[in-house]
Specification:
This protein is of the alpha+beta class and about 250 residues long. Helices cover about 55% and strands about 10% of the residues. The relative contact order is 0.14.
């Protein structure tokens, strides 16, 4: 029997005995978790803390990103090819090429379209959620002081303000943030509807890479905010988003 692929993921507090699906919260690693499950590929998870990612990636020989955070997950190790691949889009393309008999995530000639979708659709959706979920991620997912220091330093550098000041402070600002998030979901629903009245996926009949990115973002919100969180309530009552998440739950 062949060895499973190893997926490197980020842990969170209080979920040591939970299922992998319940434990996983990261909108980045969920993209690859969905991808592996969609393809029916066997994999195991190695859980890392924020501060443990860089030394582990260096140990694996991963080249640094040309960004503020040099080493990230998802990263996979595939014993079939002895290759290490990092970043969800690169992983999706690698899996398509290496396992051609599995459902494709990035169909030939669509890579630019998927990249554009990530920037123009998933990006604004993430921007609508980040200010609200940033501090809860800090509270729930930093495992120790080293994690807290790293998370705080990087996010404060991104936002140009203290971590505690990133979230909307007034009821009016918070209400507008919720409305913005719901409008983003409405926009995605209109795009999906182009595929037909009963379409749920961007990939129309089956999920594609863009669907994994959407589902990963919404799953992160549901995990971090809980079902009683206002962002989660918006997802669960939204006509398209609720159907989409029920459909994607098959591959969690």
């Amino acid at each position: 029997m062949s060895e499973p692929i190893t997926l490197y993921d980020i842990s969170r507090k209080g979920f040591e005995q939970a299922s992998e699906s319940e434990k996983c919260w990261s909108m980045n690693t969920w993209k690859t978790r969905y991808a592996l499950n969609l393809k029916g590929l066997k994999f195991k998870t190695k859980w890392l803390s924020f501060a443990a990612i860089e030394p582990k990636m260096k140990e694996l020989g991963v080249a640094p990103h040309a960004t503020t955070i040099k080493y990230t997950v998802p990263t996979i190790y595939d014993p079939k090819t002895k290759k290490v691949v990092t970043e969800s889009f690169a992983i999706a393309k690698y899996l398509d090429e290496t396992y051609p008999d599995t459902p494709r995530l990035v169909a030939p000639g669509t890579a630019v379209l998927h990249r554009t979708f990530l920037m123009r659709v998933v990006g604004p959706l993430l921007e609508a959620t980040f200010p609200i979920i940033c501090f809860p991620i800090y509270e729930q997912c930093c495992m120790d002081e080293a994690d807290e220091k790293l998370f705080r330093t990087t996010r404060e550098e991104w936002e140009g303000m203290k971590l505690e000041d990133i979230a909307p402070k007034t009821e009016e600002a918070l209400d507008e943030a919720y409305k913005t998030f719901e409008r983003q979901l409405d926009g995605v629903a209109k795009l999906v509807a182009v595929g037909g009245a009963h379409s749920v996926f961007i990939g129309v009949d089956v999920p594609c890479q863009s669907d994994t990115a959407l589902a990963a973002t919404l799953t992160c919100v549901l995990r971090i905010c809980g079902k009683e969180g206002e962002l989660s309530k918006i997802i669960l009552r939204h006509e398209w988003a609720s159907k989409f998440m029920r459909a994607m739950s098959e591959w969690e």
